[in-house]
Amino acid sequence: MVMGLARSFRRRRSTLLFSLVLLLLLLGGAYYFGFFNVTTSSLAQYSVRYLRYQHYKQTEAYREGPGEKGEPVYLEGEEKKLADSLIEKEAFNRIASDKISLERSLKDVRDPRCKSIVYPSDLPKASVVIIFHNEAWSPLLRTAHSVVNRSPPQYLQEVILLDDFSDKDFLKEKLEQYIAATWPDGIVRLVRTQERSGLIRAKVAGAKAAVGDVLVFLDSHCEVNTGWLEPIVSRIAEDRTAVLCPIIDAIDDRSLEYSGNGGYTTGGFSWSLHFTWADDSPRAIESPDYIKPIRSPTMAGGLLAADRNFFFEIGAYDPGMDVWGGENLEISFRVWMCGGKLEFIPCSRVGHIFRSSHPYTFPGNKDTHGINSMRLAEVWMDDYKRLFYTHRKDLLGTDYGDISERKELRKKLNCHTFKWYLDNVYPEKFIPDENVKAWGMVRNPDSGICLDTLQRDEKTVFDVGMFSCQNGGSASQVFSLTLTNELRREEACLDSSGQDGSRVSLRPCTGQQNQKWIHDKSKNTIVHQASGKCLDTGGQKSGDNVVVNTCSENGNQKWTMQHYLDK
Ligand code: LR7
Ligand code: MN
């Protein structure tokens, strides 16, 4: 009996030993064939990344050199001459940019209240997609470095440099080698398109390559600032249908100064379908919280974030749009109309070099902004597309390609109408031919001349002019007489001091008395309400001004409007 027990124990011990050896062999084999490499090395890589992130954060304030803390760089002598000679071609001061560290420090320009927000550690991870075509070396890599250095590693999946078929030599092997040497952990990777795609298709290519939960797009001449990513991923974790924009700070194209001037502003648009900044957005004024997301009717286009799946669900971008322009308003209208929302995130700050021209070619020399805008107007704006064509008569008849898939998308997503968007998202947007007393040309019948902006920049203050009436329709001759008696354009109102013979100017609408005009349809006069003076051609047949004068029966003071809405 005892013997039997001892034997069986020995047998069991040998089985145990055998199993142990087998296990060791298996583990050893697995290790030898690299089974554990992935996890152990990625853990090690993550720790290294985390240490680097912490190190940069702790040492940022002590960095010294040109441009550090976002300070401007001013050049002198030969360097300045060289810089000046390159500025026109490169559209910014590359020499100054090259002098600045690729990892320069920035001032933390956030509202102090942003700094005390504590974010959970388990938020979605972002893929940051930086698209570029023939971008200069230092802005491109400074963008990438700023993202790696200022994004908490737990929220950063990857940085994708999406090369849209650049042909510059330094963007080939040299760039590949730099990336491999600088980020051996693979956090930054390069993806190239096989043909020139234009920035819109390039963004889609980048989005397709990305694997993170959240997509963030950046232009290739940005610097993200401290704490930029946390409020973005945390807002998307709260609401996957929110498409987000950081506050955009200007980086000066000459001195590379990081201005921190982003401010509390959101986006609008003009009927010519250009993006505009709306400084006095009622949504911002209503809730001057400076931390919470602010709803915005539109976005500038380059810097945005969205849940990756949501981005594709609502139709990514229109792949029929070429090179540059239009996609920013298209995605803005679409997001709102199809169940999403657009917000600016005040605690997220990103700098962007604003350039006065494009340092790249437009294949075929096409007006891609115009044609892309036709596509967006045709698909998304319903009848309101008329207001776009008022500005762009020249485009009528231009081939804008096939839009059937985008129309299909709008149907499939069961999107709201453009009127819904105007009423609910952008109620303060002025519609020149709705809810007004009259609109169109303001005509002096005796002379056949009309009020005309003479195509001056309506963001500035200038004298309104006159030009022979363009019966085919000219955007610069369209004025509206509003229900509150303003005589106005999209943004600017006719304004007069009321002095005899003084010129009438166009300036931002204020609702004040000096911008009120009474149009008497029976006498064909337009009277400045505050002074009682009459709008007067001054006897000119065209010219850069109109005046007000004491009212008389003179033909110079007769005016009719093209369309009357009050019967
Ligand atoms: O064919 C091209 N392929 C590209 O990959 C042409 C350009 N690009 C890249 C280019 O290298 C850059 O990184 O696309 C990016 C944008 O081009 P920019 O910098 O010439 O454009 P922008 O800053 O003048 O234009 C703004 O409007 C565009 C409309 O199509 C895009 O939406 C840009 O992303 C957008 N930029 C911003 O919104 C940044 C903030 C500025 C403001 C307001
Ligand atoms: Mn840009």
TrEMBL record:
<protein>
    <recommendedName>
        <fullName>Polypeptide N-acetylgalactosaminyltransferase</fullName>
        <ecNumber>2.4.1.-</ecNumber>
    </recommendedName>
</protein>
<dbReference type="InterPro" id="IPR001173">
    <property type="entry name" value="Glyco_trans_2-like"/>
</dbReference>
<dbReference type="GO" id="GO:0000139">
    <property type="term" value="C:Golgi membrane"/>
</dbReference>
<keyword id="KW-0328">Glycosyltransferase</keyword>
<keyword id="KW-1015">Disulfide bond</keyword>
<keyword id="KW-0812">Transmembrane</keyword>
<keyword id="KW-0325">Glycoprotein</keyword>
<dbReference type="GO" id="GO:0006493">
    <property type="term" value="P:protein O-linked glycosylation"/>
</dbReference>
<dbReference type="GO" id="GO:0004653">
    <property type="term" value="F:polypeptide N-acetylgalactosaminyltransferase activity"/>
</dbReference>
<dbReference type="InterPro" id="IPR029044">
    <property type="entry name" value="Nucleotide-diphossugar_trans"/>
</dbReference>
<keyword id="KW-0808">Transferase</keyword>
<dbReference type="GO" id="GO:0030246">
    <property type="term" value="F:carbohydrate binding"/>
</dbReference>
<keyword id="KW-0430">Lectin</keyword>
<feature type="domain" description="Ricin B lectin">
    <location>
        <begin position="438"/>
        <end position="562"/>
    </location>
</feature>
<dbReference type="Pfam" id="PF00652">
    <property type="entry name" value="Ricin_B_lectin"/>
</dbReference>
<keyword id="KW-0735">Signal-anchor</keyword>
<keyword id="KW-0333">Golgi apparatus</keyword>
<keyword id="KW-0472">Membrane</keyword>
<dbReference type="Pfam" id="PF00535">
    <property type="entry name" value="Glycos_transf_2"/>
</dbReference>
<keyword id="KW-0464">Manganese</keyword>
<keyword id="KW-1133">Transmembrane helix</keyword>
<dbReference type="InterPro" id="IPR000772">
    <property type="entry name" value="Ricin_B_lectin"/>
</dbReference>
<dbReference type="InterPro" id="IPR045885">
    <property type="entry name" value="GalNAc-T"/>
</dbReference>
<comment type="similarity">
    <text>Belongs to the glycosyltransferase 2 family. GalNAc-T subfamily.</text>
</comment>
<dbReference type="InterPro" id="IPR035992">
    <property type="entry name" value="Ricin_B-like_lectins"/>
</dbReference>
<comment type="pathway">
    <text>Protein modification; protein glycosylation.</text>
</comment>
